[in-house]
Amino acid sequence: MNSCRGARTAMVVGAGVAGLTAAAALAGAGWQVEIAEVSPSRATSGWGLCLTGPALRALAGLGLADDCLAAGYGMSVITHVDADGEPAGRARLPSLLGARRPAMAGIARPVLHRILHAEAERRGAVVRHGLTVTAVDQEGELVHVGLSDGTVRQVALLVGADGIRSSARGLLGLATSLDYHGQMVWRALVPRPQWATGIHQFAGKAGTAGLVPLSVSRAYVFLTENGVERSVLPEAELVPRLQQMLETFPGRMAEVLPLVSASESESVVRRPVLTAFLAGAWNRGNGVVIGDAAHAPAPQMASGAALAIEDGLVLAEELGRHSSVGAGLEAFVRRRGQRCRTLVETSVAIARLERAQRHRETYPLTETGHRLMAEPA
User: Fold this and answer.
1) Is the pTM of this model over 0.70?
2) In the chain, where does the domain assigned CATH 3.50.50.60 lie?
3) How many whole angstroms separate alpha carbon 299 and alpha carbon 56?
């Protein structure tokens, strides 16, 4: 029997949101945790994300919700504007932390990363940069993990948290497709307009755009470009191309244009909208994949971070409830599977409706997804 109460050693692959959360939760439960992160430094890519209510609730389980709210921008309302510039509704989301607390928070990715990184290390997890997993061999109660520096670790648990293009997933013999949905998503870091005290989302003739506050002084603009092939643009074209597309949007997006045009090209990113869901088991032996490695929704639901953070906490909980690693992993997958599948499928449905310019039909789907996520993880 692979006892969770025996030698509790774990190797986590990836020091992103899922990996750092899992490492902190496991270390807090008494596991000896090492993280292998392929990036040579702690620097992280991306400008910002939204910590929805479920994400804040899960972070509260680590004692980090207040830190994230203080470092980010708390808010409770999503304002929708239709393609003619007319109001299409305001969704006031419930706070899962109590009536006096914000329902969600925008936060810069590097800031969230620093908070999670510090907590994982404070609890005893060791983060090793410039290192990744190259081989996995399971034998009895141990997983033999080969690393890119030529060393081998023998651990009771391997956690693949290395994103949608996970190498750990393949090494465990698990496979899923990455689906492209004919959309490229843009992000640009800008000064926060004073009127932006919640998320604003604008429907356009050929896409959707919006603004998410990240702090008192900063926000990020997002734009979803519909019906396009996957491609890479020269860096010099990013700012003028984004500005050109934003010019087609009505209302207050016009006030954001000068902020984008003043941006440097390195403040703009453009990525394909990809989704993935690992059908069936997410575990093999004493290895498991979590976060985007198991379930990657489209960004329209703003729930990828919440699912990843929940995964880390639920994984530690289920391992603590079972006498063997294998039983704990199976319970983890049972508990998480349907919730994550539904969120991925909902995000895909929203992307499809956006491509068809049926924006008003996306609003109830978004609210349904948020209601599901408000339920206990």
Assistant:
1) yes
2) 9-72+108-178+274-374
3) 18
